[in-house]
Amino acid sequence: MKHKILSVIGSVTALTRKQEAAEQSRRRAALATTSKKQEPTANEEYEDDDEFQDQCPEPNGYFPDAEQCDKYYDCRDGKITEKLCPDGLVFNDFSPQHEKCDLPFGIDCTKRPKLQKPQPSPHCPRMHGYFAHEDPRNCNTFYYCVEGKYNMITCPDGLVFSEKTGICNWPDEAQKKGCGSRELFNFTCPKVDESVAATHPRYPDTEDCQYFYVCVNGEVPRRSGCKLGQAFDERSGKCDWARKIPECKDWYKDQLTDEELDALENPPPKPKPTGGPSRRKGSRPTI
User: Fold this and answer.
1) Topology of domain 55-116, per CATH?
2) Which of 61, 161, 203, 275 ranks highest by number of CB atoms within 10 Å?
C-alpha cells in the first residue's frame, strides 16, 4: 500500500511549547524549498512519487498524510505504519517527535482537507468535538461530544457559540449567521461623535437592571452584566449595588431576601492567616 506523506527535512530534537511555532516554520520552509526544485519529466515524476509514497521522510517520527488531516504515519526505523485519529480529531503535526491528535480548532487543514467517514450519534455529527445546536436559531447552545456521547452547554448571556473556534464569543466576533447583535438584542447603539465612540460608551438594558450594553467604537453592541446583587447605574456608567440605584432598588426583590442582599453588600472579612513564624523583621535593638 502506498502512502502520501508530507516530507520533512532534517533531524529534530525535543521541543518545548515555545519552539512549536519555530518548528512549524522550519517544516513549511523545507516544503517550500522542495517545491521550488526544477519540475521532473513524466518518468522522473512517477519515480519520485513512488519514492515519496513508500519511504519515511525521516527514519523515526510521526508525519501527516498529504491529503487527509486526520490520517498520519508512524515511522520506526524507516518502517511505515498508517494510523487514524479518533473521529472528529485531526493530527497535530507541530513536531515529528509527538504523536498527538487534537480538535481541529487552530490546526491548519487547508492543504489536507480530506477526513475519514463520520461516525454520527444523537447531537454529535462526529464522535469527538464541539458542535452547534441543530436549530440555527439557537445561538448560544452547543454540544461537547466525547466517544459519541454529548453534553449540552449553554453560553453565558450575551455570547454566541462560534463554530470556527469552538468557544463562546461576542456575536460580532462569532459571525454565526442569524446570530448577530441586531438579531439577538433589542438594542441599537445611538449615534455619537468620534470622541465619545472612542470611549466605547455604555447604555442600560431597559429590560434588565443587571445588564448593560457596551457599544464598541460606538457602533457594535455587546451585552454585559453586573454581578449578583448589583445593577447598572446609567449616571456613573458603572455597576453598583441595586438598592443604591432608585430605578433598580427593587430589582432583586423576588430573587433575594434583604438579609442575602446585606450579606452580598457587606461580606464578612476574610480571616487572617494564622500559624507559622512571622516574616517581619524584629525591631532594631536599642543601643
Assistant:
1) Antimicrobial Protein, Tachycitin; Chain A (2.170.140)
2) 161
